Amino acid sequence: MQGSSDVSASEWNVPGGAAGGSANPFQADAPAGADDVRERAEALLLRKLRSRSLSLSEARIAIRGVDGTDETLVEDLVARFVDLGYLDDAAFAEQLAMSAVERRGEGRRAVAETLRKRGIPRDIAEAALAELPDDDAERALDFARSKVRGVEGKDYEASLRRLSGQLARRGYPSSVALTAAKTALSEAGLGRARSFGRPESGVRFTPDD
């Protein structure tokens, strides 16, 4: 019998030859049949969806990780899961946006970045952002109030920088972050006029005449 190097991919019924996997059907890692590949891809996607929601982009990436898949199978499975209601970018984007705002107190910029990282298309992301309440300033102030006690003991400028920096990292515009930080410090009685250090003794030393 000739070696496997002399046997064509079509004779072994292996699409694509070496590019599609091992050309020797007697090897343990020979490519599985199309039905088996589909079943494994479906099972993987279902397992992932049981643990958390996925965008269509994330679902495609997951399916591509199954050996033997091709783009036809990827798109076919994604379309099927969309039809079943397991995948829905619009609903998922709305869920992500509301969670970021209500649970984590994030601003629009941070929400937009979260949607981008999860593979939500731009038009769907923009629609989800448009549905958010226009209350960045109010939410920024609520967050600043919750953090203001953590800056006690620092001077005013350092406290202002720290609070506004925390707000900026949560996706609030710099002007909104600065205003919220100033307001929270003022409400807590930690405004510019008050010293954050040790109180002065009230004793003044003057040079001798």
Description:
This protein has 209 residues and is mainly alpha-helical. The protein has three domains: 32-87, Arc Repressor Mutant, subunit A; 89-130; 136-187. The chain is 54% helix and 0% strand. The protein has helices at 34-51, 56-64, 71-83, 89-102, 108-117, 122-130, 136-147, 156-169, 174-187. The longest helix has 18 residues, at 34-51. The radius of gyration is 29 Å and the shape is elongated.
Reported by name, the CATH topology of the largest domain is Arc Repressor Mutant, subunit A
Q: In sequence order, what are the helices and strands, one letter per element? A: HHHHHHHHH
Our count of helices gives: 9
Distance between the termini: 117 Å
- Computed structural class: mainly alpha
**Briefly, what CATH class of the largest domain?**
Mainly Alpha
Quick one: how many beta strands?
Answer: 0
Uncertain parts: 1-32, 193-209
The percentage of residues in β strands lies in: under 5%
Q: What CATH architecture of the largest domain do you see?
A: Orthogonal Bundle
Specify the helix fraction band: 40-55%
Name some characteristics of this structure.
disordered N terminus; Arc Repressor Mutant, subunit A; 209 residues; disordered C terminus; elongated; mainly alpha; 9 helices; 3 domains
